[in-house]
Design brief:
disordered N terminus, transmembrane helix, 14 helices, globular, transmembrane, DUF418
Length: about 350
């Protein structure tokens, strides 16, 4: 019997969406290698594309998929394993920041796993209201926080000092990221109750509307920030307002991306070629692939390794981001062929549920 035949059946759309979402995450994180203002006209076009379609568009999709997964885990395992998993995600996030990368989101998802358990039992009406309120709060919080965030990460030559800075940044940023992700996580919970990703064929008209409107709203909402970045220096108030709008409409874009992948999944059905199977494998091992990306950023960014932080034109940084993502897809597919879980997934599962 083949490995695929031995595994329990899984819905295509959530795994496919996680695999595609990791490309958006890679393109966003690869910007730590970008030198602002470089690359000529092509560099400016790539930077504008990044603002319109990538920045603050990948993590809402990730958060919505995380909320979707919370519902499935609660239905299969109950509340206590979710609490244990949430606590371990906080530990994973801290170690991720200490050892690899300053842009950790695992700690925030761990906090949300612990803080939103009560919301999993609420009716849909209050759930959607809470999701909208948290979305507005997250956008405003990030708009204000952006005034204190430097433009690009600073490289530190000493590895221990660099790790210390990453941990300090993680302590400050994790609650902020949790606030920013709470809205899309709750939207993901709402979508999971309707099985929008598990049964996309039954919801195609609604999914198409969400995809078109969500992505369109995200693009329109990103235009003010893109114009401010391309023009002369703007006031702090203008930048904060544009950033808040960019973040708020990014929630719509993330949900639109997830809906678009669901539409594609309904179209693909059981016709799964090599690329589709590789993307599914990446989505099933999204935690391991996410951490593998961070290892790449550590090796490429830090001055005690390749020291490419702030050195590349935007188009080159984007190409590196695509290449890092593609490598993780290949590695995930190798693990699929070997019938192996991702190492991070296996460890988190063992810590949460025991050696069984």
């Amino acid at each position: 019997m083949s490995p695929a035949a031995e595994l329990p059946p899984r819905s295509l759309a959530p795994d496919l969406a996680r695999g595609a979402m990791l490309l958006v995450i890679a393109l966003a994180h690869a910007q730590v290698l970008r030198a602002p203002g470089s690359g000529g006209a092509l560099g400016q076009a790539v930077a504008a594309f990044h603002t319109l379609f990538v920045d603050s568009r990948g993590y809402p999709m990730f958060a919505a998929l995380f909320g979707h997964g919370l519902v499935q885990l609660q239905q299969r395992r109950g509340a206590e394993p979710l609490r244990r998993r949430g606590r371990w995600l906080v530990v994973f996030g801290l170690l991720h920041a200490l050892l690899l990368f300053h842009g950790d989101i695992l700690g925030a998802y761990g906090l949300l796993s612990l803080g939103l358990l009560a919301a999993l039992g609420r009716p849909d009406g209050p759930l959607l209201v809470r999701a909208g309120v948290w979305a507005v709060l997250g956008a405003v919080a990030f708009g204000l926080a952006s005034l204190a965030i430097p433009d690009g990460a600073d490289a530190v030559a000493d590895p221990l000092v660099s790790a210390g800075y990453r941990v300090l940044g993680w302590i400050v940023a994790t609650p902020l990221f949790a606030i920013m992700a709470a809205g899309p996580v709750l939207f993901g919970v709402w979508a999971a109750r309707r099985r929008l990703l598990e049964q996309p064929g039954r919801h195609l008209p609604a999914l198409r509307r969400v995809a078109v409107l969500g992505i369109a709203v995200a693009v329109v909402g990103a235009l003010p920030l893109a114009l401010l970045k391309a023009g002369p220096p703007a006031s702090a108030a203008a930048l904060a307002s544009a950033t808040a709008l960019h973040t708020l409409t990014g929630y719509a874009g993330g949900l639109g991306y997830a809906a678009l992948v669901a539409v594609l999944a309904a179209r693909i059905g059981e016709r799964r070629g090599l690329l589709t199977r590789a993307l599914i494998a990446c989505g099933q091992r999204s935690l391991s692939c996410y951490l593998a990306q961070s290892l790449a950023w550590l090796l490429l960014f830090e001055p005690y390794f390749a020291d490419l932080g702030g050195e590349l034109a935007p188009q080159t940084a984007a190409a590196v981001g695509f290449g890092v993502w593609a490598l993780t897809v290949v590695l995930a597919d190798v693990l699929r062929r070997l019938d192996r879980r991702g190492p991070a997934e296996a460890l988190l599962r063992r810590l949460t549920h025991g050696p069984a």
